[in-house]
């Protein structure tokens, strides 16, 4: 049986890839790219960088929205 966490991940933001850009993240959250960059610089949402380019796993956006619990 599939976990509720898996169902949420597969049903929310289905039009976006598993790892998104800042522009895609801002669309997902309905915020400006300036605000998105500010959030990433303050580490509000977990991310990684390839060179100078931010990459944000969709999982961390869903965790930020409290749709998934982050159990570390």
Commentary on this structure:
The chain has one domain (4-64): Arc Repressor Mutant, subunit A (Orthogonal Bundle), CATH 1.10.10. 44% of the residues lie in helices and 14% in strands. The protein is built from 4 helices and 3 strands. The chain has helices spanning 4-11, 22-29, 33-41, 58-64; strands at 19-20, 48-50, 53-57. It has a 3-stranded antiparallel sheet. Strand 2 (48-50) and strand 3 (53-57) form a beta hairpin.
Keywords:
single chain; 72 residues; Arc Repressor Mutant, subunit A; Helix-turn-helix domain-containing protein; SinI_DNA-bd; HTH_17
Number of structurally distinct domains: 1
SSE run: HEHHEEH
Radius of gyration: 12 Å
- Helix tally equals 4
Averaged pLDDT, please? Answer: 89
Q: Please tell me what the overall shape is.
A: globular
The CATH architecture designation is Orthogonal Bundle
Strand order of the largest sheet: 1-3-2
CATH top level assignment = Mainly Alpha
Query: From the helix content, strand content and strand pairing, which structural class follows?
Result: alpha+beta
Low-confidence stretches: none
CATH topology: Arc Repressor Mutant, subunit A
Major sheet, described briefly?
Answer: 3 strands, antiparallel
The number of strands is 3
Distance from N terminus to C terminus (CA atoms, Å) equals 23 Å
Beta-strand share of residues: 5-15%
């Amino acid at each position: 049986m599939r976990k509720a966490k898996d169902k949420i991940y597969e049903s929310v933001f289905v039009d976006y890839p598993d790892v998104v850009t800042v522009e895609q993240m801002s669309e997902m959250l309905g915020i400006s790219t300036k605000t998105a960059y500010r959030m990433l610089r303050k580490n509000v949402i977990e991310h990684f960088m390839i060179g100078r380019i931010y990459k944000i796993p969709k999982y961390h956006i869903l965790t930020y929205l409290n749709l998934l619990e982050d159990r570390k």
